[in-house]
């Protein structure tokens, strides 16, 4: 039985698959992967969202970006750690992420070792 439930949201299915595989390979986790941010938003705001241990989301996506998902989660009472992934690692994005309540920030491209280290630091 998995110790942690993690939602991963990224419209790039290759990145979604890499993150999912890395997490499942390195830890005892259930990964809920979403390539469509609107479906992720519904899940995160539902009672199932409150069962999560961690959320990992890309910033730049159609429909809802990562900061919008973060804001929606916090408004819905989902206060689990949140890692924001982005290829646009500008100072403004980092500041907005921290102000919005993001726990960690990871710039793309990233190594799966860095990702796993951040996840383990938050959960273990």
Textual characterization of the structure:
This protein is an alpha/beta fold and about 120 residues long. Helices cover about 45% and strands about 20% of the residues. β3, α3 and β4 form a beta-alpha-beta unit. α1 crosses α5 and α2 packs parallel to α3. The chain starts with a strand and ends with a helix. The mean pLDDT is about 95.
TL;DR?
The protein is α/β, with parallel strands linked by helices and 124 residues long.
Secondary structure: elements and pairs:
Blueprint: E1 4-9, H1 13-26, E2 29-34, H2 37-45, E3 54-58, H3 66-75, E4 82-86, H4 91-100, E5 104-107, H5 112-123
Seen as an oligomer or otherwise, the chain set is single chain
Query: Which structural class best describes the helix and strand composition?
Result: alpha/beta
Helix content: 40-55%
Largest sheet: 5 strands, parallel
Known CATH architecture: 3-Layer(aba) Sandwich
Give the total of domains. 1
Spell the H/E element sequence: EHEHEHEHEH
The share of residues in extended strands comes to: 15-25%
What order do the strands of the largest sheet run in, or round the barrel if closed?
2-1-3-4-5
Tally of strands: 5
Which CATH C-level class is it?
A: Alpha Beta
What does the average pLDDT come to? 94
Counted by DSSP, the helix tally is 5
Low-confidence stretches: none
* Bulk shape: globular
Backbone CA Rg: 13 Å
Task: Report how far the terminal alpha carbons are from each other.
Answer: 16 Å
């Amino acid at each position: 039985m998995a110790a942690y439930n993690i939602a991963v949201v990224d419209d790039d299915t290759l990145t979604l698959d890499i993150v999912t595989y890395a997490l499942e390979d390195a830890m005892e986790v259930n990964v809920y992967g979403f390539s469509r941010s609107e479906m992720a938003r519904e899940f995160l705001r539902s009672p199932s969202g409150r069962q999560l241990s961690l959320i990992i989301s890309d910033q730049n996506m159609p429909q809802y970006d990562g900061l919008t998902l973060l804001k929606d989660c916090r408004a819905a009472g989902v206060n689990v750690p949140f890692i924001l992934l982005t290829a646009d690692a500008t100072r403004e994005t980092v500041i907005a992420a921290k102000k919005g309540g993001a726990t960690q920030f990871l710039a793309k491209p990233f190594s799966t070792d860095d990702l796993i280290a951040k996840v383990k630091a938050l959960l273990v």
